[in-house]
Amino acid sequence: MKDLDVWSFYAQLPDTPWPAYQRQRRVDFGPSELGRQRYDLSGATSAATRARWERWERSYTGRRVDLFVRPLPVPPATDRLVVSDALVDWLRRGEAGRVRNSTWHLAR
Are the C-beta atoms of residues 87 and 72 closer than 8 Å to each other? Predict the structure, then answer.
């Protein structure tokens, strides 16, 4: 297991653009029985990837956690079933897509 992914979904506010810089964040799970990710630096495909892996090796004491945030096209305080339907629709769009993006992978 490389890392842990945590997904949060929020109501898309009308006329409010979703800030792209808040879509993903990485945090440290901290010491745990899950251990920590060790990176094979010889497998890095670029200098930038190697530098990122080296930074992560120094920065994390435990498993890396990727926090993902996505808006759903529902108003705030929407009924739970409507939110559930919107999430299922979001997953179906990703599963049907040709590009293997986060939605496609999460739908699998």
Answer: yes
The 10 Å Cβ neighbour count of residue 63 is: 19
| β-sheet with 24-28: strand ranges across | 3-11, 64-72, 24-28
CA distance 56 to 64: 8
pTM value is 0.68
Dump pLDDT digits (tens) for 30-82.
888 878 878 889 999 999 999 998 988 888 888 888 888 888 889 888 899 99
Q: Which residue has the tokens 């994390």?
A: 60
Question: What is residue 41's three-state secondary structure?
Answer: helix
Residues 6+ apart with CB under 8 A from 30: 61, 62
Helix segments in the chain, DSSP class H: 47-59, 80-96, 102-107
Distance between CA atoms of 99 and 93, rounded to whole angstroms? 11
